[in-house]
Design goal:
Length: about 200
């Protein structure tokens, strides 16, 4: 089983790319399971509701711990039990580093400790779809903003910069320009997956 995770700020087109990828896997007979974070377990979906609820004020550390609580359920209930060839994740622990670490300002070492404690399996490929904050939000202009999306442009500038910083640390993390035609982006992603399949 290989994990492919998708990351990026709001409006980068993660959902479109995940849909194109799952269509590709279906048409080529490749087995996969798809999960979202936070969520995709019974407890995780309830935790997601709390995390995105605009009427709640949560401290940054509460936000971080809830992300990892949901993640721990996903790992133990779904990811570790998957017999599919690929597990596709709509966000994973890099989101906590980018959003709660670089965005909210929580010490990165504490986040890496939580990654250890929850024994997060390392992905084979992490795709960071990158776009500037203004373009990302323009794409989502019609949507109602949830609690995290309401954080403001400065926050998202930090999150974006954080993602680009994280990508420097590991070879399995790839930055893909998201300001391109969706089909062209999809083809780039297919090439990246072919590379990991040869490993
Ligand atoms: P989504 O909109 O991509 O489904 O993600 C839900 C929100 O949660 C999104 O604003 C990003 C945020 N998030 C974090 O802040 N930290 C995390 O660890 C994860 C997984 C998501």
């Amino acid at each position: 089983m290989k994990i492919i995770s998708f990351e990026g700020i709001e409006g980068v087109g993660k959902s479109t790319q995940i849909k194109l990828l799952t269509n590709h896997f279906q048409s080529t007979g490749i087995s996969y399971e798809q999960f979202r974070e936070p969520g995709s377990s019974d407890a995780g979906e309830k935790i997601r509701e709390i995390l995105l609820d605009k009427s709640l004020q949560l401290s940054s550390s509460t936000e971080l711990l809830l992300m990892f609580a949901a993640r721990s359920e996903l790992i133990n209930q779904k990811i570790n039990n998957s017999s599919a060839e690929f597990v596709i994740l709509d966000r994973y622990f890099h989101a906590s580093v980018a959003y709660q670490g670089y965005g909210r300002g929580i010490n990165l070492d504490s986040i890496y400790q939580l990654i250890k404690i929850t024994e997060c399996p390392t992905p084979s490929l992490t795709i960071i779809l990158d776009i500037d904050v203004e373009t990302g939000f323009k794409r989502k202009a019609a949507d109602t903003k949830d609690r995290i999306e309401s954080a403001g442009d400065d926050f998202f500038e930090k999150v974006r910069a954080g993602y680009l910083e994280i990508a420097k640390d590991h070879d399995y993390i790839k930055v893909v320009d998201a300001d391109d035609d969706p089909e062209a982006i999809h083809q780039k992603i297919i090439s990246l997956i072919e590379e990991i399949n040869h490993d």
